[in-house]
Give the backbone structure.
Amino acid sequence: MSNSNNQVEYYRNKTILLTGATGFVGKAILWHLLKVAGNVLDKVYVLIRPKRVVAGSPSQRILDEIINTAAFKALEKHLGTEYKKILKEKLIPISCDLSLSNMDLSMEDSAKMRDTNIVIHCAASSEYGNSLDWNIETNVLGTVRLMDYIQGSCPEIVGFIHLSAGHLYQEIPNGSQDTNMMEYVYDLSLGEPEDFLKELLDADEKVLPNYVKRILSKYPTVHLFSKALLEHLILRRVQQMKSNEEQLFPIAIFRSTNIGPAAVEPIPGWTSGLTGLSAWLALYGHSIPIIQPDQGQQLATIVPVDYLSQVVVNSLPLLEHPKPNFVLPFADIANSVVEPKMPSNRNSMTSSLADEINYFPYIYNVSTEATPAIPPPLSWYDAYTAIHDYWTRPNTMLQSQPLPTPVQYFSANKTISKARFLMRYYFKSQANSPPVPAHKPLSMNAYQSVGENVSMQEQKKWMELASAIRNCIQKQNNYQWGFHYGRFERLVSKLNITSLDGLDWYNYFLQSCYGVQYHSMNPNCHLRTCVFSDSNMSCALYQKRKTLIDAPFPSVMYTEDEMKQRIQHMIEILITSLQDPSQYLKNEQELKPIWIEYLNDTLEDWCDESRVHNYDSSRQHWLSKVDENDEMLKISVINNPKVGEAIIQVAKRSGMPKDKVMEQALKSLGRIKERTQLSYAWFAASFLLKTFKNMFSGFYIDTLALEKMRNQIKGKRVIYVPVSRTVLDPVLVWFLTIRYDLPVPVLILDEALAILGPFSDILRLAGAVFIKRDPFARSNLSSAVTCAYLNHLLQERGAMTLVLEKVRSRTGVSQPAFDDGILDMISDSEDIVFVPINISYEEVPDISVLVGQDLFSAWKTEKKIQNRMSTPAKLTRPSDSRAQRVRSRSLGAGVQEEKGAGSPLSNHFGRLLVGISDSIMLTDFKEIATIQEKSKQLAARIQEQQKKAIVISPVTLVAAILLYSRTRGNSIDLETVKEYLEYLYKFIKSQNLVMDWQDSEDSEMIIYYSVRLLEKDANMVTIDERNNGTVFRINTRSESVLQLAYYANQLREIFVKDAIFAATYLSFRVNKIAASAFLERFQFLAKLFQHQLHTVWNIEEDFQKLVKEYIERQVVSKDESDALHRLVFKNHYKEYEQLHLLASFIYPVIDSFWVTLCALSALNDVRALPLSLVPTLTQWVGMHLISGRRTIYSEVLSTEFSQTTLYSLVQLGLLVTKSAKHVLSPDAQMLMQALGLSTNDDLILQAPKEEVPKGENGEEEGGKTEEEKEKEGDINRNNDDKAKQESDDTDAIANLCKKIEQVRWMEEGSPVHIQVYERCQNQIKSLARTDQSNLFLKKQGASLSEREEEAMIQLGYALLRSMESRAT
């Protein structure tokens, strides 16, 4: 029989008595007890002290402090459907107070508990701060009273467990020759225990302080003294029972040192209250040091609470009844029998003579070192590194005063450190004092210091706690105590505890800090853990092994604090320039000189050539100095055959001498070549690391995917290709290669990124090459030089990074690859491998800027001079004199005070998630004949793999659900959000996609965390707390909706096919649908979205798969005639709403088509529309339809949506594009320019009638069955059929618009908007009227011969005026 089966059988029908269940350890033991034997044990008596407050009864406390906690909610997955029944029927609360006589038990409860079989005694006073008499009453006399009751009232007792402490002594106790604490009870060193206890009980208040002084000369705290005294009394009680020949039962004392939060169960990092290690971590969270600075190399011997609780619960079946010849484990007795030996190494199973003697009661020194599968503990230096890495993250920092770095913290002089501690924390101002532990619900803003308004008394309590802990540790550190765990080692070898095998201690401390903050300090902070349940996930920002880039910036001129302030100010300037470029431009005159000066100074101090080269001598391809080997580069480029050919062509065509053309080629090379060196690159990496730490809570990557990629690119030239979501993407990839020792790439960037102010300076230092990506903006000579230089870089450096998209999306939707010719330039070589990368952002730093551009770029005419961001900074070389920097020293020290420290929240953008897909070999395309076709297929393959690499953030799911609430009155309750979130999560997992959702994270926490990120700046979501629950309401302002949509849109490609099926399903109003009609409507939508998403599907095959899948889900069924029957209706609330939720991913796009087609009704009255004017017209129509409540989707106002819809309509053959110069008269072109519309833009025209595609039989797709027509009624029956048919025949746009009308979302029972298209056409016609007094042509003194051209110009004029007046 296995150990687990033995445990279950042991506990079957047993009754447990548990004390201290509302405490940290007691709660953990109860959890594991229920997990192991909840289904078989009889009951658990939970002894709880009643509180004299409302809801302070034992029954209410067991509900509030145990059952309703996060830990016990996690128990449900182990107990299954019996979970609630077990908690209700088997947990019996007993009102009990150990400090009172008879434990204050009622006669009824005292009689009830007589059937107790096992006692687990966890109750004790708190570690610090309680008086001596309270410790005596609770710890000592309370346990005596409990044993009296057991001995006299529980005849069937079979086991007693008592939890004690490991660090019991300050001085080496009598009976010990060294500092190795054996599993014995040592002399109390204060006289006979019973006599000394009697003295204490008889002492009056005047002499009691003298006893306290005596005790504290031997023990670090009175709590530890009471624990030592109690062990003596337990042994004496056993001795008395043996002498009286009373029935003995197994008794075990488990000692543990520094109990910490849970490592695995019930939740990683779980803790309760502030005890043990949790109190230390909480103090570190408020920048209060605990560990002595000279203890850095001492081991951090922590016992995770789940290890201790498993040991206790699993060991009870193995505890034997004492043999008659047992020996009491007093140290003086044991030493007279045998001299103990310490184990020679941690993995040895010690079996000394001392361990073989039959000692009773059993005493075990609990240590994780007794379990070989658990790695050895860290040193305190390494443990503090993890603590520092957690509490200095922007989303977890509770104090503006950060923790010192490990190097700074662990100084050699303990005396100096003690003085620094007192000066820094006891005598600092009230404003900087740390807060008290938070037991009240706090605001959602986790960054707000929870101690802003605490009283001086509360601050004093924190200071006293910190001082008490430090004093206790200092006393214990008088000697280097070692703990012998031979007996415990033999015991634990039989327990099969495997949940902590391979425990990563660094991650354990990170997780513990999170648990303390989340569970104890601020239960409503709604933070996410920074430790992934998948041990393969690595955080690039916080590494155990520190490198050169982790070190602080050196300075020969400024102090350490001054340098910190200067670097922090540089980071804030950089983030401002990225997050809000307009704000940076306003303050550029002030910020730019500071940036340049600080950058030059810091770079100069950094550029110690030997320092960098000694650290990284392996990267020989980096230049030692800027412009080194410049002549060889010029020769390489000029001698390139393509450059030579281009020079000859230019010289021949222009008549210029070849030498002059060659000079132009070299100038072109000089404009694009990189200007960096090894020390600059390492400086950029170090600065970026510190910047990213300010911006993001983590930067996570799967190390398995990383190693797979490392093997695939080994020995090859590599091109990293990230999806372009922000300007940070290329440099994030560059940073990853530095951090993980991969080939470091050259950054191939568009020249527009060269004028982004401070960010461009960092890009240059990293080795960016700025080129013209638009092939029409490059001359043949420039293209040839660019091609030669890129191939030279790829040959010399072996790696580069580029993006395929022309511009990043303003809506979160994937963009098509831009044919810029770059892939053509580098596709000559065959030893090239491409690495598709997809970086997901929980929050995009400049999301508000992107949305603003998307909403307003359609009609705002911007001055070209304002399109530039900033000129690049002129960097001083390291050879410049240091003396000139002395003048700004005071500025560096005080700039933060002058500007004011910014809130960490404002610059925090959540976490980054990196996905890497399978690498693509260029040789896979060698059979393709032309370079252009090869590049096209290569780009398509890369983008396909990028989509597979996505790591989905739950923030996007929450955003999608909040947007769905628009169909529910713009509000949705918390429970519904949780239900939908879990549904989408399961859907994504079924697609085998990677999602950032840890097993330990519950949906409610995910929701609040996501909402906090989403509503941080834009007030997009409000929370309405009511008695009947929590309701989220979204702000329906266009900017807010589009920001939410940006995140939700990233999911569209994942759900699109199911969303199309759901939208098709919901578009029918009858139960029975002909399969051909269903397929026809499905195909219609699928064709639209194929072009929207730039992909190709096998639509009919995908449809059949979906039908089969939804038949299995019992959403549809098929009959003998192959017709589909709808099985889910509005009365099937859950399933029906899930279909609506899926369809909501595409409803905004459907409405975008609808609104754009309504706008294109203008083509019936004007000859053509300028392509750049259509989004403006669509916005104008969309605003009218939104205000008229004809659509609820503000996404129809998106410029990008409109442009993508136009592209789709062109691909469908409904529209064609032609050059304005080929369509319009010269006078019309001049008037276009007068309106600010470029004549280089294309015009949109209706396709000739014979080119417009029709559905089968010339009818609209998705035609109704006879049954449907009969039940639903013909929506057009009130129209004139003949006129309607004529209109459809002549207006293909109207025809398509009405097809889309069939599949739009409409509220149940609402009328169909059958005349919206006609009304929009009439409104647009009124704008284009050429008989108005304010005719633009008259103002310009011009005339046009064609009325349709006049109408187009007047429409553009009226439209722009209307939009500008609306904006003002």
In short: Residues 339-351, 425-454, 861-904, 1255-1288 have pLDDT under 50 and may be disordered. The first strand starts at residue 15 and ends at 19.
